[in-house]
Amino acid sequence: MLTQIKGLHHVTSLAADAQQNNAFFTKTLGLRRVKKTVNFDAPDVYHLYYGDEVGTPGSVMTYFPFPNAARGRPGIGEVGETGFAVPKGALPYWQERLERLSVTGLAMDSDFGQARLRFDGPDGDGFALVETEDTRAPWTGSDVPEEAAIKGFSGARLRLRDADATGELLKFMGYEATDSTDGVQRFQLPGGNGADSIDLEVHAGANFSRPGAGSVHHIAFAVPDRAAQLDVRKALVDTGYAVTPVIDRDYFWAIYFRTPGNVLFEIATNEPGFDQDEDTAHLGEALRLPVQHEHLRPQLEAQLVPIAD
């Protein structure tokens, strides 16, 4: 069993409009944009990162906004819902706020004993605010009061045709099966970073998802450093998983592999962090480009639609 994984690092999804996406996460949800860069594999598309003050692993939601992308089709083989942790008693504030801002899909319920407010993102993304006992510090630079502000992820829910093989993978990654109800199994990581809950939701007869705007592209798990990442990679390869080589993403190093349920998992390092090329006070303000794309700056700055903050 692996011991290096500490919870979620980030969740990366697809969107159809960069301005709409930026406004939703910074204005509606009150997160901080901690990086404005480009998709390293398609540099004519933004890669936007939102999180707490410094983009602490376990707090960062990221997006590739492909202009006018078609809406994804929900189904199995994907992350169906991403949960954000909020303080106890915060949900009435959020229900009023999201209703006032015309957010759709609002539904209050209880999940594994936790109060939860489900809602849609601008592209139909599945989200939930979950009341938790959480000591992480939120970003306080928005108009969301500190006593209600998002502290980071609580976890994520995967939609699968069968949960057994993915459950065994999670146990290998250090998670423990802690509860189950109504076709959903919960796995939690003891001593994690707060973003340490993964749910497996079984839909035996459902169709596979079709990626598009509102779909999660991949879900990333955090390890402290590159040495821990190499240990995890070797263990996964030895177990039979096809794992990519280590890829430099400027703000972390990444490896990727497909789960038995066809969800794309990433293992990302906590180092070097989002402040390695910007002062903390100005994170996410300027367009940052990786070295291999810096020569394209004039072209990209002319092509990428400016984002009004």
General description of the model:
With 309 residues, the chain is an alpha+beta fold. It has a single domain, classed as 2,3-Dihydroxybiphenyl 1,2-Dioxygenase, domain 1 (Roll). It is 17% helix and 36% strand. The protein contains five helices and 16 strands. The protein has helices at residues 18-28, 91-100, 164-172, 226-239, 297-303; strands at 8-15, 32-39, 42-51, 60-65, 78-86, 107-111, 114-120, 126-131, 152-160, 176-181, 184-188, 197-202, 216-223, 247-248, 252-258, 264-272. An eight-stranded mixed beta sheet has the order 2-3-4-1-13-16-15-14. The protein has an eight-stranded mixed beta sheet with strand order 6-7-8-5-9-12-11-10, with helices on one face. The radius of gyration is 18 Å and the shape is globular.
Distance between the termini: 44 Å
How do the helices and strands follow one another from N- to C-terminus? EHEEEEHEEEEHEEEEHEEEH
Tell me the number of helical segments per DSSP (H or I, 4 or more residues long). 5
Number of domains: 1
The rough form would be described as: globular
Specify the CATH homologous superfamily.
2,3-Dihydroxybiphenyl 1,2-Dioxygenase, domain 1
- Strands side by side in the biggest sheet: 2-3-4-1-13-16-15-14
Which sheet architecture does the biggest sheet show? Answer: 8 strands, mixed
Look at the structure and give the CATH class: Alpha Beta
Number of strands: 16
How big is the Rg? 18 Å
CATH architecture: Roll
* Poorly predicted residue ranges: none
